[in-house]
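#structure-requests
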Amino acid sequence: MSIKRYGAEGGTGTGGQRLPFSRAVEAGGWLYVSGQTPMKDGEVVEGGIVEQSRLAIQNCLDIMAEAGYALMDVVHVSVILTDARYFQSFNKVFSEIFGDHPPARICCVADLVVDCKVEVDVTCYNAARV
């Protein structure tokens, strides 16, 4: 089994800092996407929890597409919210995106090292990629 790393050269975080991890790692049909925040071009996009949730999830979907995975390949999502009051709004966005085939999920409340409201990571599986 081989391991393929996407973005191993490191992305750009807030303030232009180099990030020391891969955007995603693929092994044996599994794709693990690193936690994504509502960032574009290394800067947090301002907005409420709905806008930030959409962008964080979209950033995951963009990385998945780069690696050749689709929405239906998502088996698990981890979510970190910075305030428990965001839970219902996040769930609305999550439902809009994943529809009638939601993946397994964990959601917790914690401080983030980036000044935003949400971070999302996904785990995908596609047997055809084994």
